[in-house]
Design goal:
Elements: H1 2-10, H2 13-36, H3 38-47, H4 53-72, H5 77-94, H6 103-137
Helix pairs in contact: 2-3, 2-4, 3-4, 4-5, 5-6
Length: 141
């Protein structure tokens, strides 16, 4: 009886939606923040050594928001996960390169890099789950 209830919850559409919302919340917030405060986003790009800052900020906004929306809509999740995962990997290489820092800066950057890697894993899991859910319910993009 308990096992059946657990399976019903795990197979529910609402839990799948909540899981996707939890996964993409940070991307939506960051993308919207960079869009609403475009100058602040450009300052971040400049601080990271990216030029032209406006172009990079625009690309980041499009990547974050489109990737998050695709995952929320459960459409081409593999592509959205790849986009967002690639963004996180580039962020590690460009901003959180702990191997080239020392002291507290190195430690903080390493923690950010580890968090990014964990989220990349979550994105990969979401892509796998989306694919398997489509196989089970025979739904296509």
């Amino acid at each position: 009886m308990m096992q059946e209830m657990i399976e019903k919850v795990l197979e529910s559409r609402w839990l799948w939606l909540v899981a996707r919302l939890c996964l993409v919340g940070v991307f939506l917030a960051s993308g919207l923040a960079k869009l609403i405060d475009f100058d602040g986003g450009m300052a971040e790009m400049t601080a990271a050594g990216l030029s032209p800052a406006g172009l990079f900020n625009g690309l980041v906004v499009v990547t974050l928001l489109s990737g998050a929306v695709l995952i929320l809509l459960d459409r081409v999740v593999w592509l959205a996960a790849g986009m967002l995962g690639g963004f996180l990997l580039l962020t590690i290489l460009i901003v959180h390169h702990f191997w080239s820092k020392t002291g507290a800066d190195a430690q903080i950057s390493m923690f950010f890099a580890m968090e990014h890697i964990a989220v990349i894993g979550g994105l990969m899991i979401a892509a796998i789950a989306s694919h398997l859910r489509r196989l089970v319910v025979n739904v296509s993009d």
